[in-house]
Amino acid sequence: LTVDIRLRGVVLAVLPVVLLPGQFTLTPRALRLVSHVSVSALALAVTLDWLIHPQQMDVVADMAQWAFACVIIVASSWVAQRVSELRLKLTSERESLSSVLDEVQVIAAHDSLTGLINRRRMQELLHNEWIRKDRLRQTTTLVMLDLDHFKRINDEYGHHAGDEVLRNFAELASQTLRQFDVLARWGGEEFLLMYPGTKPEQALIALERMYQRLRAASLLPTYPDVRITCSAGVSCALPGEPYEQAIERADQALYRAKTSGRDRIEVLVPTC
Question: Sheet harboring 141-147: ordered strands across?
Answer without folding.
Answer: 182-187, 190-195, 141-147, 230-236, 265-267
